[in-house]
Structures are given as structure tokens and as C-alpha cells.
Predict the structure.
Amino acid sequence: MKIFSSLDEFIDSKLHIDAFVPTMGNLHNGHLQLVEVAKKNSKNTCVSIYVNESQFTDKKDFDSYPKTLDADIKKLKDTGVDYILIPEKRDIENNSEGFDPVLEPKILTNDLCGKYRKGHFLAVMDIVHRFFQIIKPNIVVLGEKDYQQIVVIKELIKICNHKIRILSCPIIRADSGLALSSRNNLLSEAQKKIASEIYKSLVLASSLYEQDSSPREIEDEINIFFSRSLIELEYFTIRDLKTLQQPNDNDLIALIAGYLGTVRLIDNIIIKSHLR
Ligand code: PAF
């Protein structure tokens, strides 16, 4: 495994990266699963660790984001990843073009999480676009917990004509159902138990759908569910699986975001898929 803390050295090495796993560090089993999938499907894998400040819409959220570089490197070493890239902001900016904000697909980026985190997805598009230019991978591996992010990056690839294929990995959950996330480290054990209500609500949504409830009826039930919870619901909605636009006859996904104290949690579940 080779660690590049210098972007110049990475670029000078003229590597041909097959699979790229972008991360912001504080790695958990969800990330390690992405690396496993990357390794299985490629000739070599590069993981980036870079906490992109501009995608945090709340300064406190950025300040409290757990930074665990030594532990992250150790975990990656154990997975047998080929390259780790830990670049500096200035070097990234000097070696890539930013994403042109005029091209932002606002119908997607200002909706759902983007409605509550103004500028978040534009900042994600920008950093991922920069990484794509620098790393030039054939494949990018992304986790389905950040489902909207996958759809946004798919759009980025289309808009900028990157020749990159997305491999997406199912959500990894704790035994309680809580989706693994770096932010879970900010929760006490008691809070983690409460946070698992997010997944329980998604299972409820899925079973209501099986019983022929309409998306509107399911949304009403989930609002009632959270009126009795310590979790403050930001949004729960059912959308088209591919486009994230309003539901229609196609495949469907239920998406949720909520706060437990100051910790923002997101999750989702596919409730209708022609593949199942
Ligand atoms: O999902 C993340 O960790 C980040 O949004 C990403 C893709 C690494 C961009 O900073």
C-alpha cells in the first residue's frame, strides 16, 4: 500500500487508477465494504481521504466531524487497498478545474437534502469533479446511504462527460438497523438505540407499500410515527428511484432525514424495484 500525502507525487507517479473510493475519513465498515467491492471489481483501488469543508453547510458540523487519520490508514492497510491519497486543498485546486455552477442540475441539487443544506451538492459536484480530473479512474465506488449523492454524481458524469462508471454498494447496518455513518460516533449508546427508529420507520413504510397504501398515506403514517419520537423529522418522502422526482409507476425509494439532538441522520429504502 502506498500513501500519497503529496498530490504532486501522486500526479508524477502517473498511475492508472482503476477504482476510486472517495471518502472524508473516519472510516467504518460501510467504507470498508466499498473498498471490498472496489477491489473485487478492479485491477487496483485508490481511496482518497479529504474532508471537504465547503460541502458542510454548518460550520459546527464541520468542526465536530470526527478526524481519525491514523486509525483510517490502519483499517485501509488491513483491507489491502493499493493507494491512499490524502491531498491538501490548495494542491487539489491547483491541479483541477472547478465544476461550473452554471451547469448545476438544480432540480436535483436543491431538493431533498439539498433543500435543507444549501450549496451542499454543488460543493460535492465540485470536489468530485476535481478528483475525477486528477485521479482519472475507470470506476467510482459509492455507498447507497447517500443515495441522492449517487444520483448527483451520475448527473455530474453525464454533464462533464467523464468516462467513469459508478458502482454502488448497499447500505451497511448495525444489528439495530441503524445505517453505519461517521456521524454515529457523535451519538451515545442510548441515542444509537433511538436513532434506529429511522430504519424502523423505513421498514414500516415498505410494509405499508406492500399493503397497497399510497405514497401520500405512507408519508402521513411516518409523520405520525415521528410525532412520538425524539427524532425530529426533516423530511420523509417517496420518490422515483432513478430520478428522485415525484413518484410514478416506476421503481420507488423512500428517503428520510432527521435530527437526533444536533446529529443529522439520513437513510433510505427501496420500496419497489423491478429487479426484486
Ligand atoms: O460521501 C462523502 O464522503 C463525500 O461527500 C465525498 C463523496 C467524499 C465528497 O467529499
